[in-house]
Amino acid sequence: MTEPQAERTPLDPEMFDPVCPSPLVPFRVGDKWATLILRCLQDGPRRFSELKVPLSGVTAKSLTQSLRRLERDGFVVREECGGAGRRVEYALTPLGVGLLGPLDAACEWTREHWDELIDAQEASLSGDG
């Protein structure tokens, strides 16, 4: 179990650019929210309420389902922390940490091919593709 941290930097509510929706990224691990959740956990364990801050578009049900899938797939561990008030935190497993490097590469590839990805999706929506 992870020791509760006295102080930790809050997650930035703007850490995910709303102009860059996850559906544009052609690489998937899990569902729509999975890679974003992994990014939120890269600096250490977080509570459910902390994860909701930068993931403002996710419903509680979807976040719960995504966390359960990530836990089932071995990327995230759910830890109950004792003490004054019972609370639950989610943290990356070694497998989850190992996925951060490939995610960095996928994000870089997406940045390099941003215009092509947008053009392809727009062509598909307009019926030109």
Please, could you describe this protein's structure?
By secondary structure, this protein is mainly alpha-helical. 45% of the residues lie in helices and 11% in strands. The chain has a three-stranded antiparallel beta sheet.
Give a quick precis of the structure:
By secondary structure, the protein is mainly alpha-helical. The protein has helices spanning 34-41, 48-52, 60-72, 94-112, 114-126; strands spanning 46-47, 76-81, 87-92.
Relative helix content = 40-55%
Amino- and carboxy-terminal Cα gap: 51 Å
Radius of gyration: 16 Å
**Secondary-structure content class:** mainly alpha
So how many helices? 5
Shape: elongated
Helix and strand sequence: HEHHEEHH
Overall pLDDT, averaged?
Answer: 83
Widest sheet: strand ordering: 1-3-2
Strand fraction equals 5-15%
Ranges where pLDDT stays below 50 over 5 or more residues in a row are none
